[in-house]
Amino acid sequence: MAESDILHPAAQAQGAQSAGQNPFADFQRLHPLTLAYRIVVSLPPFLLALIPMIRRGGVETYMSVFLGVIYGVFALPWIVLYYVRFMFKITPREVVIHSGILTRQRRSIPLERIQNVEIEQRLMQRALGIARVRISTAGSASSEGTLDSVTLTDARRIRQQIRAYQQQAMPAGTEAPPPLPGAAASEATAVGVTGASPAMPVQDEAEPEGELIYRMPARRVFLAGSLRFSLVYIAIFLSLFQYVDIAPERIFDWFDRGGLDGLQESNSLPGWALFLLAFVFAALLSWISGIVTTVNRYFGFTLRLEGRKAQTKSGLLSLVENTIPLPRMQALHLRANALMRKLGWGRLEVQTMGVVTQSGQKVAMPLARYSELWRTARRLYPFELPDAKFSVSRLTIRRAFVRYSVALLVFLGLEAWLFDLNPNVLWGLLLLPALYGLAVLRYRNHTFSLTEDAIFVRYGVFQHRTWVV
Q1: Residue 143, preceding bond cis, omega within 30 degrees?
Q2: Sign, CA torsion 196/200/204/208
């Protein structure tokens, strides 16, 4: 292919003779700002690798200089070559992506398999006016194709063009499915609908939005973070402390100087007290990290209906626009931990056809009252709530109790072996009645219901889950 055939999307748009022409019909390159973005993103890991060497000095300082030279000689040209060698185009049948530096790769993504075109903007991308486009297909655990990066306008036009071709590919004589109850086509609150055919113009401005059915206030976003715990970030923080050579003793010394005089004699505290202090500190850190990550992910969350698709949009530092294709939806998932359930809060997720991992479930409502969850779930897929529920077999009590007991005995056996047959481990057998009570609770919370439209399955003790299939 000649180099002159490859133009920037803006140039293609200017060359369109009619409003219905596809501006992505020929091979395109990513936006030139992709170079600056990828260079800046690659710098923090490189600088973190240099900090320990620079602090220690000596021969290792020369090693850091050597690494800097290697970065300039190899990494920067690699980023430039990645940009030059990456091309993509959209045809009525597929999305074609050419990539690779040493090995040339051609990836074809059939349009009929595309389930979601996600648009993501991180903080720096928002400042530069560019966005990342992720193309997901049925049966894939991750994105099938990623365009990193294009302008936000082009990202929306790419998504609109793919939707238009998908609608055009419907079998001849097949009418479009009727809109959902209260869909945007008939509501006064609707601004527009998606799914324009390729004969219609591809707009440069922001896509029209459908009917708003849920908006998450800021106080509810903070509440969602308060009810969420993330132990993963504890390991990240502790690893960072070790990486930058901050010893735990220095942290405790800093707290002592701040007025925590009671910890000065911490070495005289019993083991259970130190364990309790560590647990409280870990729980506090987990609670704070859960709030921060939730606010960053779901700030300004909105859910809209656009014809046969649901559109979500959220993010504080990173803005993400996601699409849920309602005709491909196969299950609804309502879940809540014990505290959320007690307070009457829950979370609604949607699973579409071809999802192979639980992470593939899309969040429709991060936090809402159960009445709101059921009302919205019935908007996404109309169904009748069951009049009665049925319990599973009582044999599940025996099965669960045997599994819990075996796990407890294995743990106690290992502890006795490690501590030279310490007889104190026998006190752990007092947990058996509690395990039997847990098995009974598990049985009581495991129910199912049947209607003409769906199957309802409810289960869980500490995590309450309801599946509507």
Answers
A1: no
A2: negative
